[in-house]
Hints:
Layout: H1 17-29, H2 37-43, E1 45-48, E2 52-53, E3 58-64, E4 73-78, E5 92-94, E6 99-105, E7 117-124, E8 136-140, E9 161-169, H3 177-183, E10 187-191, H4 196-204, E11 207-210, E12 216-219, E13 223-229, E14 238-245, E15 248-256, H5 296-304, H6 308-324, E16 328-334, H7 361-368, E17 372-373, H8 374-378, E18 415-419, E19 425-433, E20 438-440, E21 443-445, E22 453-454, E23 466-473, H9 476-481, E24 486-487, E25 494-496, E26 504-508, E27 517-524, E28 527-528, E29 536-538, E30 547-555, E31 559-560, E32 562-565, E33 569-570, E34 583-586, E35 590-592, E36 596-602, E37 609-615, E38 619-625, E39 632-637, E40 645-652, E41 658-666, H10 676-713
Parallel strand pairs: 2-8, 9-10, 15-16, 19-22, 24-31, 35-41
Antiparallel strand pairs: 1-3, 3-6, 4-5, 4-7, 7-8, 9-23, 10-12, 11-12, 13-14, 14-15, 16-18, 17-18, 19-23, 20-21, 25-26, 26-29, 27-28, 27-30, 30-32, 30-33, 34-36, 36-39, 37-38, 37-40, 40-41
Amino acid sequence: MSSSPPPVVRRRRSASLLAALAAAGALLVSPLLAASPATAAAASEITLESSDVAVGDTFSVTYSTDRPTATNWLAIYPESRPEPCDACGMAWAYAPGATGTVQLPTNDRAGNPLAAGNYRVEYLYNDGYSRVSEPATFTIAAEPGTGEPGEGPEVDPTKPIDLSVVQLNVWGKTTDATMLAEIGADLIFVEEAQSAAAAVARDLGFDYHSTGGSAGVISRYPIVDVGVVTTPGTQGGWTKAIVQVGDTQIAAYGGHLEYRYYATYLPRGYAGDVLGSGFPTEWRGWNKLSGPVTDVPQILAANEASGRPASAAALTADMANEREAGRLTIMGADMNEPSVLDWTETTANLYDHNGVVAPWQTSRILRDGGLVDAYRAVYPDPVSHPGFTWPADTPNVSVSQLAWAPEADERDRIDYIFFAPDDRLTLTGTRIVGPKGDIVRGARALPVSDEEIFTPQTLWTSDHKGLQSDFVICGEACQAAEPELGELVVGTPSITGTATVGAEVTAVTGEWTEGTAFSFQWLADGEAIAGATSATFSIPADFAGRALSVRVGGTLEGYVPAEVTSAAVTVTAAEEPGSDAPAVVLGSSSVVAGGSLKVSGAGFAAGAQLKLELRSTPVALGTVTASDAGAFSTTVTIPASVPAGAHTLVVILPDGTEVTAAVTVTAAPSAGADAGGDALAQTGGEILMPAVWAAVLALLVGAGLMVRRRMRQS
């Protein structure tokens, strides 16, 4: 999500009071300004020196009008912006008087050459955004290389080539190239980059493609051709670079999608600057709403209006053409939208989703277009691996600059790497990069899971976390040179442990070729269980009567990978709870806010991982592991922010079962109350006061006696 306001296109000239009065008088007396828009357009026009312009060229614009002012102006806009607007124009110049010719460079706001694509020149009135005439269109012809292409690293195309891909919103800052070097990036997608793409590429010694707008592509390997997929719903279009890696070409697309119409805020009770007719005016801006919006069709309609889904459709169409041409395709983007894989039934009551299950359109269109979400390909479970990338707990930045919905849990995964499957491209791993913490309800918070997050030593300067995915490329020469692989000796896997609800079972691989590395996938009735990919599995409560098995995969260099599935075992129900049913005992029926409370329990499964929460509004109090006897004892701290009143302490079992105990939270003593340390300080004051008054009285008496003596002497 863009976390800074749109950059100002140009500084408007301030006028003196006299000039303002003169302009107002002109408006009152000029009959020309009373003409209808149609008449005005007919009496004004612009013509271009040429409708075809090369990258980096300057061209002439001739204008004439019967509505002259000193501050009429000409500006370049991308064809994707149908109307003139602030912060979305490119190069501009004033066009004073009734006629004249102006030279316009084909540059962006930062002075960088515009990429190939379709543009128009707007003739606009008096420092504003109303048209003086109809616009004139032109095309910038395609031309490879906006940077100086380098030769790139030497590679042997007959060997597999490692390619590390990083996606990062750099928050409008010139990110330190040292950080990206520390991460180990070969192909980098940056957003909110502006001049940062060129600066980082220069410092790294990499090639790059950028129009000077939000999105850019930086590559260790040579960029041999460039372009832009211009489409509404993106901030400047998809920046497209053709990267040469060995004998393989990659069509790499960087994108930053529309940050407004941020519909993921609606269920959280915040406006997402949803504009346009047909939507409540309350949804405009970024303020808190009167309540959460949970009507899914309404939410999706607001999301559709962003243009992000349309931009995804344009991207998949262009990627399909590149695949037809024999290229690999990879995309990295800040999409400002969650994934259809993340807002599911399993997360409906997490992270302030407020029960909403949303089939977000943009990620669905990309998936339907044959693309793979690199993070979810490795970590399919959004509960164990939420993959949050925004907002990040950025060091040395105040929370007020990071939280846009300060009373909500606004965490989301909105940064992505997608790729199209291909025999030449293998995904070997992915991870989040950046600070470990998040921002939750306007405060810094620790991560909710133990998913891998790599934090560079270099100071992090973005309000997003980034994403890194590692690939191996094996092109035609590599595949032709691949030796014949041997056949693994495959063992017979089995399941040990008692297959009972709540119990933990373990996969035994059997005897395989020495050195084989194993992977696991647990199955229920033959179907893969999401996220169940370790050697052990804790059986949930709803698995009673189901057939449980495990699929073991084996890999070893020089051998063909193999998979084999164990025989199934039937899960039995747990014994009916009786006197040994789980129970929780509190050390006290009440606790002061900010104080400690002893919690103990018994009757739990041996070694069970238990979560402790305080409700009604859930407050995490930590975790505890049951002993071999199924018991635990721990002390928790009740946050000082918890309101006084009746609450419930909840112990959550691994299968989601909850055991509760009532507790009353009392308010912390106010400052100066007659208790604890304050009471001692106050009591001491009471002891000293009589002595003070006695001393004062003695002084007064002494003074009186002295005065009396002097009067007698006189």
